[in-house]
Design goal:
Structural class: alpha/beta
CATH topology: Purple Acid Phosphatase, chain A, domain 2
Number of helices: 5
Number of domains: 1
Amino acid sequence: MKIAVIGCIHNEIERLPLLLDKISSYTPEVLISVGDITNAFLPKNFKPTDIGKIFLEEVKEYFKEILIVPGSWDKDLIPFFQKHNVLLHGNGKIIKNVGVYGFGGAQTPFNTPYEPSEKEIEDGLKKGFEEVRTAEVKLQATHAPPFESIVDIVGNKHVGSLAVRKSIEEFSPHIAVCAHIHESRGKDRIKNTLVLNVGKFTEGYFGLVEVKKDTIDAEIVSLI
């Protein structure tokens, strides 16, 4: 099974068709969006849910399964995605032999709309993990990257989530995916978990996870 992971659309919905067409050549069945579909600078006369609706309509053309983790700008989209049964936020879902669980939002210095506490993130990830505990393969999806990793650095500072890192260390998922910190797009490893910050999708990057019978591969792909 192939899983595409995208992050940080930030309202640039006009770029989606071209990028999704390019992703389709890799034949993924599942899409995980790790948040920040919108941001503060909405197009004139648009509401966040308008962006969410367009996003969901676009990706449904390409993927059999869609799971969405809200970003720090996506608070208003949480009930919308929940209504459409695509929200991966404090819960989990098993697809074939892969259990995907997640929690969204992130702490920032910018007073964004959705900044859950570390305790909320920790509790939400624990709840989601319990729903997929029996899955053969486990994948954790968060908006925030894990603290003190290669993928959470701004300047020379680590700005990721302690709770995300703690959950990786405790639950040992095979793969952990995130975004949020665009400039720290890349790969890291925490104990037995491969961590992917997939960066900003509208800059032409996405994560590709492939679960085979005996191996699990993950890479960041450039569409540029």
